[in-house]
Amino acid sequence: MTHALQMLETHPRRSAVPSVALVECIDACFDCSQSCTACADACLGEDDVGILIRCIRLCQDCSDTCATTGRILSRQTEFAPPLALAMLQSCADACRRSAEECELHAHHHEHCRVCADACRRCEDACRETLSSLAV
Amino acid sequence: MTHALQMLETHPRRSAVPSVALVECIDACFDCSQSCTACADACLGEDDVGILIRCIRLCQDCSDTCATTGRILSRQTEFAPPLALAMLQSCADACRRSAEECELHAHHHEHCRVCADACRRCEDACRETLSSLAV
Amino acid sequence: MTHALQMLETHPRRSAVPSVALVECIDACFDCSQSCTACADACLGEDDVGILIRCIRLCQDCSDTCATTGRILSRQTEFAPPLALAMLQSCADACRRSAEECELHAHHHEHCRVCADACRRCEDACRETLSSLAV
Amino acid sequence: MTHALQMLETHPRRSAVPSVALVECIDACFDCSQSCTACADACLGEDDVGILIRCIRLCQDCSDTCATTGRILSRQTEFAPPLALAMLQSCADACRRSAEECELHAHHHEHCRVCADACRRCEDACRETLSSLAV
Fold it and tell me: Would you say the ipTM is above 0.90?
């Protein structure tokens, strides 16, 4: 359980995005940032680290991108839709790339399977928020 | 629901801290980082922003400290207990300061009440992890 | 003086972007991330904070976006041009918005004038790197 | 050249630390955060990545710790010396650990030699600022 929904509902400014989609997206960004940091590190601890280099790199980029996107979406005062749109597109793209790479290793490494799941959840949430903002 | 527990359970290295305490601490760090970013921003959108300056500043510092602590704890490969201990102490301290300041404004601003709750949860989780590591 | 140039020159993988442009962009991202954090905080300490709310918000978003862009560009192993392109566009956009807002306050607040300068430097560096990558 | 000195000199609040030491510390934190991200990534691109695992992990932790410390020091409004002290101690410690590990690989990998230099500069700057604050 996170405090994201309560934080959004008690914010003095009204959100430009429906609360349910926005809270899911914020939660998914912070969760995916954590999973990707953990997966990059788990890959680093594997014996076959040599074939996981691309996975580590993409997970690190995805973790940073999700962290920034989650923060930008958490700020509703003077919310700037165009900047949010650009970051959401970068974030959905970073999540898709990490997910695709993690899926290649999912049969050998359970952490890649779990991380791919977190990335797909975040990719979907970003696309959902994008379509809310674009309306 | 976050993926932190599954990420920890599928990590190739064994954690130096019992999983239950560690997962709660990781989740609390990411959650508190989000709440503090949101609370600093909500304060910025209030009419009485002038009396919330200290609250904004402490929440910003707490958000950054929790983000870094959550990442360090998510890395279990070549885990360095002394560095984790130092960050956990900084983090517990940052959470306590934000909580105390938010509590001063909790009767006027619901987001400060909610954020104080996230900060206290994270402070407690850091202290719990500290005592596990110190054993 | 930063160590960015030396770090790039000693990296085992060859960069997809000419070193001069890339190092300037990395330096500008970290510098702008610092300036924007400092400017948001300086605005918060001003007596007329009420008219600086939008400036504070845009500087915070810009600081986070620059930090993530600077990190992604610092990673040259398995470099993914499409992800870098997307972040560079988000970053140039965030820098432009912060610069425009800071410029509105530059006559009253010197820190906004200095921060606008850091933002314009970073916006230019991102656009330069974008054109190198797009070739 | 960074904008950190100008940002500090134009800030409305007077710093609790002499400007020269503080600016050097802020610059060193952002520089070391960049170097450590780049060194972790350069290690990942080396053929002997297997013996660099500990170096990668320590550099990643150091990069995050320096980023947070650099941000906290950049905020002078309602500056809280005890929190800054705790983070400076964590940061000096993280820099020392990264430097020591990088120094072990400095003869084989130039990026480790350069990164160790950035870490030692930041460790020194943190200790200098600590002694200014402790007075």
Answer: yes
